[in-house]
TrEMBL record:
Keyword set, alphabetical order: Oxidoreductase
MF-aspect GO terms: oxidoreductase activity
Keyword Oxidoreductase in record: yes
SUPFAM superfamilies: NAD(P)-binding Rossmann-fold domains (SSF51735)
Family indicated by similarity: Belongs to the short-chain dehydrogenases/reductases (SDR) family.
InterPro entries per record: NAD(P)-bd_dom_sf (IPR036291), SDR_fam (IPR002347)
Taxonomic lineage from the root: Bacteria, Pseudomonadati, Pseudomonadota, Alphaproteobacteria, Kordiimonadales
Name of the protein described by the UniProt record: 3-ketoacyl-ACP reductase
Length: 252
């Protein structure tokens, strides 16, 4: 299916690895020109090199998403470099650090990083005639996962924020949705670490999936690309689970 993304201009935060990197590659494979940010230049260089064979042009830049001023400047520079913005994917997460540091990281990086990205990018997308913002959340924001969690609390907030923003953004021809991945296996990510260090836990989570496996970053990226395209022109204000049936709740 041709998603009609050729020549579209996209920004992805946290695009050097994991779901962010898979999203960069998917958008570029559909012909979009993509710029992403990450904190480490070596990670940026590696990711850019890995995308050189794709139809769309991929570039990257260093930026700490928890620094709102730096993030805003990066977004403005990206719009200038790409001559506008059509697609934005706020993806960066501070992870699940315990204690007060974890709460501060989750709020400043996940929540405020997304809010800043959307506030700066929305008028830029509107100026180009409209487009899409797809916020990356998690099923941890949809159900209790055992105890109090900054990570899950903020992921819930992201889903709510995206839904609220969609109501005003649609009047500017910008669709806003969120995507909530379930357990996704990434070798150098959280579930890759669990598989190496706690195989019993990994196997138990794997067994909870009807397909007896965890998801892949590419499977999440495919959904993000669809929501970012005109193929999803009548989809806004929704949250899409990408979890292989892991969560059992019924969405209304």
């Amino acid at each position: 299916m041709d998603l009609g993304l050729k020549g579209r201009r996209a920004l992805v935060t946290g695009g050097s690895r994991g779901i962010g990197f898979a999203t960069v590659r998917k958008l570029a494979s559909e012909g979009a020109n993509v710029r992403f940010c990450a904190r480490t230049q070596s990670d940026i260089d590696r990711a850019v090199d890995a995308c050189r064979d794709l139809p769309g042009q991929v570039t990257g830049g260093a930026c700490n998403v928890s620094d709102s001023e730096s993030l805003a400047q990066f977004i403005l520079e990206t719009a200038d470099m790409l001559d506008g913005l059509d697609i934005v994917v706020p993806n960066v997460s501070g992870g699940a650090t315990p204690g007060q540091a974890g709460w501060q990281s989750a709020v400043q990086t996940d929540l405020m990083g997304t809010v800043t990205t959307c506030e700066v990018a929305l008028p830029l997308i509107a100026d180009t005639g409209g487009g899409a913002i797809t916020v990356i959340s998690s099923i941890s924001g949809l159900e209790q996962t055992g105890g109090v969690s900054a990570y899950g609390t903020v992921k819930s907030a992201l889903i709510s924020y995206a839904a609220q923003l969609s109501e005003t953004a649609v009047t500017q021809h910008v669709r806003v949705n969120s995507v909530s991945p379930g357990p996704i296996y990434i070798e150098d990510g959280f579930w890759g670490q669990v598989k190496r260090q706690n195989p019993e836990m990994y196997n138990a989570v794997e067994a909870r999936h009807g397909s007896a496996r965890l998801g892949t970053a590419d499977e999440v990226a495919n959904v993000v690309a669809f929501l970012s395209s005109e193929a999803a022109s009548w989809v806004t204000g929704t949250n899409v689970k990408v979890d292989g049936g892991f969560t059992k709740g019924i969405q209304f």
